[in-house]
Amino acid sequence: MPQPPPSGDLDLAGKIRTIYDLAELAGVSAATVSRALAGKSMVNSKTSERIRKLAEQHDFRPSALARNLRTKQRGAIGVVVPLGHDRGQHLSDPFFMTLIGYLADELSERGFDLMLSRVIPNQDNWLSRLIDADRVDGFIVIGQSDQSQVLDRIAADYLPLVAWGGFVQGQIHCSVGTDNFLGGRMATQHLIDRGCRKIAFLGNTQAIEPSLRLEGAKAAIAARDDIMLVDAPTHFASEVSGSDIDAFLDDSGILPDGIFAASDLIALTAIQVLATRGLSVPGDVKVVGYDDLYLARTSAPPLSTVRQNLAAGATHLVDSLMKRIAGEATGSTILNPELIVRESS
Q1: Cβ proximity of 176 and 205 under 8 Å
Q2: pTM over 0.90
Q3: Most buried one in 44, 138, 159, 251, CB count within 10 A?
């Protein structure tokens, strides 16, 4: 007389649903099945091989949830965008969307989900609260904004944390990003080489990356008495409007013959404003942006810019975070920028 299927979750067709079903079929404990499928050496090789063959025959794969519970991992990474210096900015910003896309690809290939948060840091405990929620295995912060002190304080005790952004001497948190000082110097030197003598810098220097780009621009003209560099006030936003640039040009009292913008978006908005004033690019004013997003290549005219290799940046971010999740401290990574010369300069 045929025997009924084992009790528990094994269904009437004999399908194995849980490690308990597989353990009952193999005549071992559920803990032994778990260890065997995880490749633990504490289970003898013959038993491990038998369990793995049974699992393969019955097309059994342990659920990600069960695996995460055994390894004390959540299988998710928190990607956080803090907007302390520029609260009107949105995740739809092309820079954010590009980098987040690369991060999503990297994380999914390694078996992790991405949990995205946009944070307006009204209090210094915003990151502590995310960590205390205990929903992810670690955090990637996109841009330090004006929150470097918060990141340093958390990084002193919390290892699985990496930030995309600028690096400054003495910082505690691990960062991955372009050499912003060098990028700013390259962009400004290019404008000087193109004959520009009155250069405007457009960007919000409350954040680390634009401030370093401005310092690089200042370094490029340090030995030149014949060049003027004018920078925008610190409230200049990333999602800048044409009226913002109009106001800056009016208030500065000069008509620049070169513009170095802290982002491609600001640069392209500046080109639109110059057109409304009857000025041509690059004939009257030469313009250089920063990032080399897709829209820089498709604009009219195509935009000269400083390229950040965001694909490589995402790989470095995830690599560093995986090491930190495993308990290994990692140093910061500084990537080389690349000047891309197109028709706007």
Answers
A1: no
A2: no
A3: 138
Strand ranges (DSSP E) for 165-246?
A: 174-178, 198-202, 228-231
In this structure, CATH architecture of domain 76-177+310-333: 3-Layer(aba) Sandwich (3.40)
**pLDDT recorded at residue 40:** 65
Q: Is the pLDDT of residue 6 over 50?
A: no
Do 151 and 127 form a contact (C-beta atoms < 8 A)? yes
Task: Tell which wins on pLDDT, 108 or 5.
Answer: 108
Give the span between the Cα atoms of 12 and 104, in whole angstroms.
40
Structural contact between residues 143 and 166, judged by C-beta atoms closer than 8 angstroms: no
Number of other CB atoms surrounding residue 45 within 10 Å: 9
pLDDT at 11 over 80: no
Of the CA atoms within 13 Å of residue 189, those in its CB half-sphere come to 15
For 19-71, the fitting CATH number among 1.10.260.40, 3.30.465.10, 3.50.50.60, 1.10.10.60 is: 1.10.260.40
Contact present, 76 and 136 (Cβ < 8 Å): yes
Residue 64 in this model has a pLDDT that exceeds 70: no
